[in-house]
Specification:
four-stranded antiparallel sheet, 6 strands, elongated, 1 helix
Length: 103
């Protein structure tokens, strides 16, 4: 981009993210992904499905673009990303906004 954008402290970027997460410790008290209601003739009850969605060694891939701005109030970062390869249960995010310091 031109010098005017650089003078404003804006840095564009493009990225590819690849990764996987598996063998996740499952806490059956807090990590229930689905609760199914079952009605019975003598009353009703609930069945908990204890499946941790997204727990798979299959790689996930996303691509995106972003921009960093060193504002007078501190650094801001905006990212737009699209999942190319995903699995059922993945939490896909299209937009992300960050405020803070750079490392």
């Amino acid at each position: 981009l031109g010098d005017g954008v650089a003078e404003l402290g804006i840095r564009p970027s493009a990225f590819v993210d690849v990764g996987a997460l598996w063998e996740v410790d499952f806490d059956e008290d807090t990590d229930i992904t689905d609760i199914e209601f079952i009605g019975t003739p003598g009353g009703a009850g609930f069945i908990q499905t204890q499946e941790f969605a997204g727990d798979s060694p299959s790689p996930r891939v996303s691509v995106g673009i972003g921009a960093s701005w060193n504002s007078p109030f501190g650094p801001f970062r905006f990212d737009l990303a699209r999942a190319i390869v995903s699995e059922p249960g993945d939490d896909e995010q299209l937009f992300q906004f960050n405020v803070g310091t750079s490392f």
